[in-house]
Design brief:
Radius of gyration of chain A: 21 Å
Low-confidence stretches of chain A: none
Largest sheet of chain A: 2 strands, antiparallel
Distance between the termini of chain A: 35 Å
Strand content of chain A: under 5%
Largest interface: A-B, 66 and 67 residues
Oligomer: homodimer
Strand order of the largest sheet of chain A: 1-2
CATH topology of one domain in chain A: Arc Repressor Mutant, subunit A
CATH class of one domain in chain A: Mainly Alpha
Mean pLDDT of chain A: 93
CATH superfamily of one domain in chain A: Winged helix-like DNA-binding domain superfamily/Winged helix DNA-binding domain
Bound molecules: FE2/S2 (inorganic) cluster
């Protein structure tokens, strides 16, 4: 069981957008360049984030992506579900009712114990993800980014964004 | 993100083995028949359970599968990892080091905050699964099985196991 590869990219993208000064949309091309990612595949992740209401686009010569909400109001769970979908990981296909000893469906009054146990664990996972915000991720990231990188990043954004990039 | 389809089958198979009277191996053919599953694909799940030390085979004319440990000593986590593998669901590919602003690897002293946050949620999920035993699953199953089905199952096993089935 694995997350989509695009999940890592999506979370990094959101964390980077969270760092941008207010009113500074980030063109998709720069996002891809910053992380050395293939732009068409990154575009798919950004589209999913946009459909989930996490990012939005600004049109125009200085257009690009911005966060649609404050980092405090975006949870890790929302980003994960935007990319991987909201479905449960465990699917009960009701095989308890199959075979030579199964009886009519009406005799099974609630979800089976296997599914309930699996879903309880998923709920613990979701709860943890919902308790972590993009702001938390951003602060962890800021604390662990080497100062050399921070300096290079500021210089790189100044050089590239000042050129009036478009999406 | 989804579990393998075989996971449901594997857990049901273990729960059924847990119900068998001591010293009564269950032939694979009967396991498949009981749940109406394709035997070759069920065989793959049983092989994984066997590699994980959860079930074992008894040879001979009355051979078949038995649990390798008591249901109290088998956790839901062990069954899940036997089928899906023990790997983490979130993989950090260290893209923080990539791109025009990345700096040398030695400057990043520990796993990144994104991975740590994702793994924390996985740990909560694993903890929940590790706290549920096959005995718990078995008791939930017994409580919710319609009495008609229990009666049919006992009759079916008596009729089929008494014929001296082999694996
Ligand atoms: S009946 Fe199989 S998991 Fe619910
Ligand atoms: S650097 Fe991307 S998740 Fe760790």
């Amino acid at each position: 069981m694995k997350h989509s590869e695009g999940l890592e990219w999506a979370i990094h993208s959101c964390a980077l957008l969270a760092m941008m000064p207010p009113g500074t949309p980030l063109p998709r091309r720069l996002l891809a360049e910053f992380f050395e990612l293939p732009e068409p595949y990154l575009a798919k992740q950004l589209q999913k984030l946009s459909q989930a209401g996490i990012v939005e686009t600004r049109r125009g010569p200085r257009g690009g992506y911005v966060l649609a909400r404050k980092p405090e109001d975006i949870t890790l769970l929302q980003m994960v579900e935007a990319i991987d979908g909201p479905d449960r990981h465990f699917v009960c296909t009701e095989i308890r009712r199959c075979g030579p000893t199964g009886v009519a469906g009406k005799h099974y009054t609630r979800p089976c114990g296997i599914a309930r146990s699996m879903w309880k664990a998923e709920a613990a996972w979701r709860k943890e993800l919902a308790a972590t915000s993009l702001a938390d991720i951003q602060h962890l990231g800021m604390a662990e980014t080497p100062p050399e990188q921070t300096a290079k990043a500021i210089a790189w954004f100044q050089a590239n964004l000042l050129q009036g990039e478009t999406e």
